[in-house]
Amino acid sequence: MKRPNTDIRVSFYLKKTSKNNTNRRAIYVNLKFRGEQKQFATKIYVNNPDDFIKGGLVGREHHDNQMKLTMITKKLEGYDGKLFSDINKVLDAYYGDDILDYPSTILEVYEYSMKHQSDHVDNTIRRKKSVVNSFERFIKSNPTSYSNFSVIKKAPRQMFRQHALEYIDWLKSIDMKKSSIILYVNSLSSLFNLFRKNHLDRVPHLIENPFSSIIKPDTKEQRKKKALARAIDWEYIERIKELRHIRPQDIMHQHMALLQAYTGLSFIEFGKEDCLEIRKTIHGPTLINKRVKNKKDYMVYLKEDIEQIVKKLQPIIFPPFVDNNIINLFIKDKTYKKYNRYLKNIEKEIGFEDPKPLTSHRLRHTFGMRCVNDLKIQIHIVAKMMGDDQETIMNNYADLTPDNIILEQKQQTNLFEEVNKKTQNSNN
């Protein structure tokens, strides 16, 4: 393979500046490096094009400007081309005043932060790598407008807030959900903040975080409304139970759906080899384990019919994709798509009448909603069953409308009065 030419070459040319003044010209730099060319303005002008000969100015009156052109040439051609990966880095060095010893582009910033983040949980690191890769794909989606943006103010390729907004539009164009977009933007913002925190006293003219507060998250009320809307009518769960399949994979997916609805198990838990190990307690069979997401304990008592579902699922007929809390994303995504495809396919069979599709996540929400609002199980118990904290249960599953609050108070008051009457009668 031929080695790339690392020589930096500079030449100058004239460019018209006005339709009205046909003689006045601006002098531009034409920079060549590694088979690429870039042009930028010198902010030097001549009123007579004939004074510009062979790429330079002639005449005593142009002495100072010619010296400026000479200095531009010496500075650019004086760089060691082996230190630069592309022509954009040469420009960054030229405008950034000696920025070669620290990251100066947005992708270098992310690479630095990925190596120095304090959260070394493998799943989190993989997710952030995926986010950074998406931003790199955004850059490549329109190379004439986007590049590996500079994080130095007034650099020729400086990244602006507008670029971050266009990245959000790009995510929307590939049909990414708002919740995922918020996650992506917040991840990029946190990575940039880490770099900025560690370099603010070292990097001159560092730009502000272009991703900071750029997308408005849903309010607490909006999030709660969406969470409550994820639950489905329990009638559909009963219809899933009545389905009759022949293919082993369909039977497995049917039991997975029922188990999620009856226990609130997250899909990711199915990826663990020991997820279906039933513990025998003094009160009966129970699923006890730690969640992959937050490593919190969850425990769910299994009635006889639910215990039978667990046993029918053993063994699960897809390879485990969680080992020591590390997720094999390839197997996980492939398995998840097949499962959600099954849920999509049975919508017609169960007469599912909902504008939004039936998904694995909705089955878990249905369990939480049913426990809190229908079965009236106390919040802290539901939190322990689902491996969540109480605030999450309150925000996502408790339907605290005025009517429901009043009805609950009425039922509890009536129950108290009945118990009180029985106690008085027994005393008499």
State the order of secondary-structure elements, H for helix, E for strand: EEEEEHHHHHHHHHEEEHEEHHHHH
> What's the CATH topology name of the largest domain?
hpI Integrase, Chain A
Helix content: 40-55%
Flag low-confidence runs: none
CATH class descriptor of the largest domain: Mainly Alpha
Strand composition percent: 5-15%
What strand line-up does the widest sheet have?
1-2-3
Q: Into how many domains do the coordinates divide? A: 4
Class of secondary structure makeup: alpha+beta
- Counting H and I runs of at least 4 residues, what is the number of helices? 15
Quick one: how many beta strands? 10
Largest sheet: 3 strands, antiparallel
Radius of gyration (CA) equals 32 Å
In CATH, the homologous superfamily of the largest domain goes by the name Intergrase catalytic core
CATH architecture of the largest domain: Orthogonal Bundle
List the helices and strands and how they pair.
Elements: E1 9-16, E2 25-33, E3 36-46, E4 52-53, E5 56-57, H1 63-77, H2 87-96, H3 106-116, H4 122-141, H5 161-173, H6 178-199, H7 220-229, H8 234-242, H9 248-263, E6 278-281, E7 284-290, E8 297-301, H10 304-313, E9 322-323, E10 326-327, H11 329-345, H12 360-374, H13 379-386, H14 390-396, H15 402-427
Antiparallel strand pairs: 1-2, 2-3, 4-5, 6-7, 7-8, 9-10
Helix pairs in contact: 3-6, 9-10, 9-12, 13-14
